[in-house]
Every structure is written in C-alpha cells, then in structure tokens.
Amino acid sequence: MPAASISDRPVIERIRVHVIGFGSDRYSWSALMPAMVNTDTIVRITLSDGSEGVGAVCSCVEHGVDRAVAEGIRPLIPGLIGRELADLGPADLGPSDLDKTDPNLAEIDRIWDWMSWRRPYVGNPSIAAIDIALWDLAAKRANRPLWAHLGGSRNTMPAYASIPVLEDHDANIALIEGLTADGFGLFKFHYKCVAEADIGLIEAIDAAFGDSGLTFMFDAECAYDLEAAKRVAAAAEAAGFLWLEAPMPDRNLADYAALKAATSLPILPAGITIADEQDIVNALAHNGWSAVRCDTASSGGLTPMRRIADLAAAHEMNFELQSWGSSLSTAANFHLSLATPHSRYFEVPVPRQDFDLPGVSPIAVNASGTATAAEAPGLGLEIDWTELEAASEMVLDVRG
Question: How far apart are CA 59 and CA 44, in angstroms?
Fold first, then answer.
C-alpha cells in the first residue's frame, strides 16, 4: 500500500481550551498554604479527519479559579492550528523504544521541542496539556488505551489515598476508617509541617492501625531542616511507614544525601520543583533520593516524562508519580504509571467527591484498593462536553 502523501495527512483544525474550578476549597495539602481552589485546564484538539485528543492538567491557587495555564496555551495555538500531522506513533513499543523508529514517529517530539523553546515564558503545565492531548490522539488513532500505546502490559495497579491537611489526629483516623470501608489499604498523610507535631500524628496512626495491615506514607511538604527531617524519618521508620516524602526543599540535595545515609526509610522528593529532565539528572548525582518522583504537568507532558521514567530505570530506582486533581488531570500520570514497570502506586486525592469534575467519569478504584484503566482507547474517560462546558469558567475556541 503506498504511503500517504503530505497532502493526505490530517491537520490540526480546531483547539478548544476549557478552564473549570471544581470540588471543595476546604483543604490544602500543606499547613504552610491556605485552602486552595482546584482548577483543571483541558485541551481538546480536533484534526481535519474528525479525530480528537484530550489533555488536562490541574493547578491550585488561592482566591478563585486559575486562568494562567490557559493563558499560557493561548500563544501556542497559532503555531499549532493548520499543522500537518504524520503518524503520531507506533502501538507496540515501550517508552525507551519510541524514539528509535521512522521519522514519522517523531511528530509529537517535534511539537514538544517547538513548544519547549517557548519556555520559560510559556510554562510546563501549558505545554503538558497540549502534549497529553497529542498522546491521547495518537492512542485513539491506534485504537488502544494509552497505557498499551506506551508499551505497557497491565491495566491495574494499587492506589493510595492522599489525605489533605485535617485538623487533628482524630479527623485523620476517622477518614482512614471510612476509606478502608471503600477498599483503600494505602494512605499518605499531610499535616502540620512542624516536626514534633508531625511525629505525633505518625505515632497516633501507628497506635491506631499498627496491627491492621494498612500501609502509610508521610509527606512533609518540604518543611524541615536536616535535623528535623532525621527525627521525622526515625519516627516514620519505627512506625513501619513505606516512605517519607518531601522532608526538605527538593533543591537541598546535600541535605537529602545526608538524610538518606542516616536512615533505611525510603526518602522521596516532592517532585514538582526539580521537574525537568536535566535537572533530575543533576539531582541523581547527589544520591539523595530513593525513587524518582515528578508530575506530568510540572515536567511538561508525557514526552519528557517517558525519558525521565527511563532515567529512573537506568538508576535502578522506582518511578512514583505525583498526582493531584480530577480523574481527567491525573489520567496521563495513571497511564504512564501503568506503562512503567518500576512504578508501584497511583496517588488518588481524597475525599474523592471533592475532586470530581462535572461530566467526566472517575478512574475506577475497586473494593480492594486497585485502580483500573478503562478499556476505551486513549485516556479512556467518558466526557460529557455539554456538561463540562456549562461548568467552565473560561473557554478558548480557535478554528483553522
């Protein structure tokens, strides 16, 4: 069969951007931050042949809905509308193989490179939303779930409940008890960002659930100095916690190395400050982390995140993605985790109803705490665009 001519290739005909605030503003993930409003910025790319791709990222700000990510997308749209697209990628290759095939494959990489040269004036989350939409489009055109298109062989993985800052020990214990009834067995806490108070919660959780078979992590949101981090790590290790996350600012790499040398508890970074591939390469040279942790939005999309996943594998480290937001804005992280053998867990913010997006189906978490990807192509989520658009605070709609 002869190859399609350039003129036969579809072009980007329309780009729509939806900005929607959702859920509750009662919570924060850090005692150092006020209650935050969650915002999803959603990109919908339509080609001239009618095929579509969807990407979304979450951002959290004070005092209302965040329009900044959408405004970052706005200057990229004129350079994308009318762009011819070759085959966006093969269906049977793993992340490390995707860049080693014929030139047609490189279309997503070329678009990402073009967008990346607009940084820092266009931020990574704006680039990521477009990049995710292109990968969703590629998987749909291949008629595969995104995790399979990325070379994965599983569609399920354990989910952990990521608990916001609650007022006291009792509130955390009560929420855990409710979540265990929903099937969760893995939990991550955020609390006061003060070492002694945080140790108090760790010890209270251990006293309440130490023999239950439940598993816990603690996220300190970069709040400690080295000595405080050592004390909290010792308490978390004594309680049998799975890891300590973000005990210090991610860029305090020498302190991370000292902490990692002082404990056998796995130590993870926050994952949103050191997010670019080369910065992670430099950070790994300090040997201060037990796993690579980052986020598709902060790192600029699935295109660079595939390379970062390979980087973690090369260092024989797990790749644990930061995921915060609705099912739509965490779906790319979920599919990449499924496609990455050295990713173990999927982060699910709770209470789940406070992260629902109007008109979007949730990622399924079953009674045994396992998250399962839908069988539909691409991201696999059902979207009622009429309902979602009606709830949107801002819509950009550009046609070729």
Answer: 18
